[in-house]
């Protein structure tokens, strides 16, 4: 039994035969061989390929174009301005002749192989004679069938992805609901207090870090783990997207203390504005550059008012 795979019009895989060896050279379903493949297999070193093709194919008085060989489209000029090359397809009979006249040590081996191939082609109907149009039509039909199967597969994958995403979203909501503690009534997070008191960072976000600093300055204990006392409640929130975090909440009484502390910071000059220096004008401070809260060697950048 003979097995073969046709790809781009040529047998690119090896013919596997129970009795004889492997495929020595690529042969098209219509029994044609690339001249370049034959040249490379014969290991001809005395001639460059283009010179060998001209002498033994084109100028060969015993060979006729259209009968013994076919000329393919000539390749354009190379990237380095070299001469263009022409490709040829040879019949098996003509290839056998070139094997003999090549004087190559592997010429006889390849000649015997071509004889075996001819016998296989004559005895087997595995590779029927097909026109180029029939070959193209057969390949196109296979491509259409393959594309149909791919569309069905992609549709199934889209359905699975959609169902998986819905399950992930639902799971995230369930985890958030199970792991998130609810603060007591009236308790507010640091970000909300910062926004309420207009404590805004230089990035125009509520400055929650400065709020917690003010709370610690008022001797409120803020732990780095879930914790609760009369003033502070630290809640661990597990967000499936951004990961776990700690939210700090303050009681109504603590909010009043933080608000007073912020007012005192303004009165005591802890909040300063840094100006651009100008070369001219002694009394002109220039445009505001940055507002900062500075206390006990601790500095927080604030937004320009």
Provide an overview of this structure.
The chain starts with 5 loop residues before the first strand and ends with a strand. It is of the alpha+beta class and 305 residues long. The protein has two domains: 6-75 and 83-139, no CATH class; 188-302, no CATH class. The radius of gyration is 42 Å and the shape is elongated. The chain is built from eight helices and twelve strands. The chain has helices at residues 35-42, 49-58, 92-102, 107-123, 132-179, 190-196, 208-217, 252-267, and strands at residues 6-7, 10-11, 32-34, 69-71, 88-91, 188-189, 227-228, 232-239, 243-250, 271-275, 288-295, 298-302. 15% of the residues are buried. A hairpin with a 2-residue loop joins strand 11 and strand 12.
Secondary-structure topology with pairs:
Blueprint: E1 6-7, E2 10-11, E3 32-34, H1 35-42, H2 49-58, E4 69-71, E5 88-91, H3 92-102, H4 107-123, H5 132-179, E6 188-189, H6 190-196, H7 208-217, E7 227-228, E8 232-239, E9 243-250, H8 252-267, E10 271-275, E11 288-295, E12 298-302
Antiparallel strand pairs: 1-2, 3-5, 4-5, 6-9, 7-8, 8-9, 10-11, 11-12
């Amino acid at each position: 039994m003979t097995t073969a795979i046709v790809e781009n019009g040529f047998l690119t895989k090896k013919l596997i035969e129970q009795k004889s060896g492997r495929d020595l050279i690529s042969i098209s379903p219509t029994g044609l061989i690339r001249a370049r493949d034959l040249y490379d297999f014969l290991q001809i070193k005395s001639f460059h390929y283009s010179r060998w093709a001209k002498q033994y194919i084109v100028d060969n008085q015993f060979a006729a174009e259209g009968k013994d060989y076919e000329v393919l489209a000539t390749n354009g000029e190379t990237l380095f301005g070299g001469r263009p090359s022409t490709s040829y397809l040879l019949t098996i009979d003509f290839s056998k002749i070139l094997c003999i006249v090549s004087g190559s040590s592997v010429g006889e081996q390849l000649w015997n192989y071509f004889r075996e191939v001819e016998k296989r082609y004559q005895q087997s109907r595995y590779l029927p004679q097909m026109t180029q149009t029939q070959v193209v039509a057969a390949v196109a039909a296979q491509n259409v069938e393959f594309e149909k199967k791919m569309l069905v597969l992609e549709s199934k994958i889209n359905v699975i992805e959609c169902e998986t995403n819905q399950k992930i979203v639902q799971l995230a909501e369930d985890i958030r609901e199970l792991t998130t503690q609810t603060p007591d009534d009236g308790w507010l997070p640091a970000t909300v207090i910062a926004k309420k008191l207009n404590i805004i960072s230089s990035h125009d976000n509520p400055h929650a870090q400065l709020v917690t600093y003010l709370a610690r300055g008022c001797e409120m204990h803020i732990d780095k783990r879930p914790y609760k006392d009369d003033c502070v409640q630290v809640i661990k929130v597990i967000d499936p997207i951004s990961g776990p975090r700690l939210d700090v909440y303050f009681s109504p009484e603590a909010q009043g203390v933080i608000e007073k502390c912020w007012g005192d910071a303004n009165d005591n000059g802890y909040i300063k504005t840094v100006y651009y220096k100008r070369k001219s004008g002694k009394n002109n401070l220039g445009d505001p550059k940055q507002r900062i809260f500075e206390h006990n060697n601790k500095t927080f950048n604030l937004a320009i008012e």
